[in-house]
Amino acid sequence: LEAPIVTSGSAIGSSVGRFLGLSYREVTLLLACGAAAGIAGAFNSPIAGIVFAIEILLPEFTIPVFIPLLLASATAAVVARFFYNEQLFFLVTEGWLTSSLFYYVILACLIGLFSIYFTKANYTIKGFFYKINHPYKKVIIGGLMLGALVFLFPTLYGEGFITIRNLLKGDMTAVISNSIFSSYREFPTLIILFTIFTIFAKSVATLVTLGAGGNGGIFAPSLIVGGLMGFIVAFTINTLGIAEVNTANFIVAGMAASLGSIMHAPLTGIFLIAEITGGYILMVPLMITTAIAYLINRSVNKYSIYTKPLAEKGELSHHEDKDTTVLNMMKLKYLVEKDYLSIGENDLVRDRMSEILSSKRNIFPVIGLNNKFRGILYVEDILKQTISNENNPSQKVEELMREAPQIISEDADLKKVLQQMETENVWLLPVVKNDGSYLGFVSKTAIFNKYRAMLSRQADYLA
Q: Which of 429, 385, 382 is nearest to 409 (CA)?
């Protein structure tokens, strides 16, 4: 239920800010406070709530935003304690051994690779359901798939926290118990294989639920999957006699690494697991596994599973590529200048001379039938014609017009537009609608002015 809680908290913060008529910066901060409070209240982890808001929602905000986040998270944690005062997981451990660090690295690599698979599967499965327009058909298909998965893997029923609790208590058969294969729980090999299949089934079930329109998120599933992977690695090592490792420690480390890599929020993963398990003594293994898993995922996916859709729409402000980010936030159609004198290609130059001379522009779009863009007429060409005494009273505009170096579509990407301007060494280019009809001109001046305005506005947000 953490996804609806975080979403609801963010919505409440945003709605309050809009109702009070606050600025964009303040509304965004209240939205983040709502999300932080949701995490803090749901998991009784105020520090993780703050870190989550900073990593996911406010990556470019400054230190002063910590104060509202601190108050929101602390308040939510206090209120939540009145209703639920128990710790989510209980970890019994004597600490970690340096001899096990190599196996933590192996666990981190496996989780990093799995997080890449999870991200790709997310878009594949959601894309499949997006193609289904009929809502009832979508629900039926999703329901049948989930029913089959839960029948084969009962661990998938619910969030999965009960299974993790049992594994932390030392019940190594918790995953296979209550399944149709429970009679074979005495065989370690079958436990390992069944848990591996459960891990992939859990990811598919989560994405099918979301794709079919169900309620949920990827926060809890990423914890469960990571915990199961940590269990598999430790159980396999102990079963094969390679070494003797603490299974509970690996479960906890796997949960942190999975959350941190899938969500691109390593600090959230570390502090959340440390808070909900009380496993602060395992900070070093948590940091190592989470950092390695995150770096593996980050090497393939520049954006997290949350931010990639926004980045593809050009609605994400990313600190690593400020130019592209700002340009993606700008729309070409709002920068088009339409106050140019349009001249028909069959018009006589003599008939339009008075309008041309009284215009403040030195170039004019030439249009044909149905307002189709044909070319550009330059004042200098008219002057050259006049000075050379070759002025022809019956000369048409099409005889003097030039072809445009490039013609820009109204939905073109502004970064590519600037690149075309640099390539052609021009200061402005004509813009046409999708049907080829003339719309106006876009200039570097208009783009740069809007760019500076966007940077100034972002600076105000972060102040």
A: 429
Q: Strand, helix or coil at 401?
A: coil
Tokens linked to 354: 């008075």
Two tokens, residue 461: 């947000």
CATH superfamily of 98-316: Clc chloride channel (1.10.3080.10)
Residue 269's alpha-carbon distances to 116, 194, 255, in angstroms, are 17, 26, 8
Decide if 197 contacts 226 (C-beta within 8 A): no
- Is residue 4 within a helix (H) or strand (E), and if so which, with residue range? helix 2-19
pLDDT per position as a tens digit, 218-247 = 888 899 999 999 999 999 999 999 999 999
Mean pLDDT by 10 residues, the chain (463 residues): 78 89 80 90 87 81 80 91 72 78 95 94 89 88 92 85 87 87 87 93 91 81 92 94 91 93 91 83 92 94 79 60 69 87 87 85 88 89 73 78 89 86 89 89 89 73 53
For domain 328-462, the CATH class is alpha beta
Q: Is the CB of residue 46 less than 8 Å from the CB of residue 73? A: yes
- Write out the two tokens for 102: 């190599």
**For residue 405, how many C-alpha atoms fall within 13 Å in the half-sphere facing its CB?**
13
Helix (H, G, I), strand (E, B) or coil at 64: helix
**Beta-sheet strand order (sheet of 428-432):** 408-409, 428-432, 438-443
- Vertex 207: Cα angle to 203 and 210 (nearest 5): 145
Question: How far is Cα of residue 450 from the mean position of the Cα atoms in its chain?
Answer: 25
Identify the CA nearest to 253 among candidates 106, 78, 424: 106
| 65-104 residue pLDDT tens | 788 899 999 999 899 888 876 666 666 667 788 889 999 9
- Burial pattern 15-38, b for ≥16 Cβ within 10 A else e, equals eebeeeeeeebebbbbbbbbbbbb
Amino acid at 86: E
Strand, coil or helix: 60: coil
